[in-house]
Write a structure and sequence with these properties.
4 helices, mainly alpha, Arc Repressor Mutant, subunit A, two-stranded antiparallel ribbon, about 5% strand, 2 domains
């Protein structure tokens, strides 16, 4: 009985090794097909942070709001297209929508826009 269990465990481990190798090949093929346009969360594997990028901003650039920021661009889109959605804004700006889910509430708190259902509208001033 012990021989049967040992041989079964070895067969399972062998099959798991083959499946892990297959998984690695499939992940590589998927990455090659989708390229750089689709990236998971965080930094790509094996890439270390460079010293100038550790703060998330370029060296020598001032902190705070600047003209030409994504928030300003999003605000202009909302003003020109009332009812626009975050995915539509992201597509217009060629950025990922998840960034806008942080930007838009800030514009609401500043009293510049309001949300109505899925769409965003400028606040009349």
């Amino acid at each position: 009985m012990a021989d049967y269990v040992d041989s079964t465990v070895k067969e399972i481990e062998s099959r798991m090794t083959m499946l892990q190798e297959e998984m690695s090949r499939l992940e590589a093929a998927r990455s090659a097909l989708v390229g750089a346009t689709r990236r998971g969360p965080g930094r790509p594997r094996g890439r270390a942070a460079t010293p100038e990028r550790t703060t998330g901003r370029r060296p020598g650039r001032p902190r705070g709001r600047r003209s030409g920021t994504r928030a300003t661009q999003a605000l202009e889109l909302v003003r020109s297209q009332p009812g626009i959605t975050i995915p539509q804004i992201a597509e217009s700006l060629s950025i990922e929508p998840n960034y806008l889910y942080r930007v838009m509430p800030r514009l609401v708190s500043e009293g510049l826009i309001r949300r109505d259902g899925q769409g965003w509208h400028p606040v009349s001033q």
